[in-house]
Sequence to fold (127 residues):
Amino acid sequence: QVQLVESGGGSVQAGGSLRLSCAASGYTHSRYCMGWFRQAPGKEREGVATIDSETRRVYADSVKDRFYISQDNAKRIVYLQMNNLKPEDTAIYYCVAEEESLCPPSTRIPPAWYNYWGQGTQVTVSS
Fold:
């Protein structure tokens, strides 16, 4: 059973930066996909960025060139570096994972595709 623990959320002013971390445990397969979803109040969950065991990265258009996803394979930690944050980035950010599969070529896939979810961490960006 894969478990995901997020950290690094918080409050920041527009233009600032935050880094989210997601520590994964319980993987039994070498192929995997990990990433981040977010959900703003009154909105549906949306995919933000993904990275897989072949280090292929995919970003949502809304965060491209501002966010950067990376991983520490040895520690099984995935990071989301968020720069030039905007008020519309305010949301709960969820770490997600799926085993035995590489990431799809788009972040626009149903949240149900991912079997494993973290508890979520709040990111608040003030103007």
Observations:
- The chain has no helices and eleven strands.
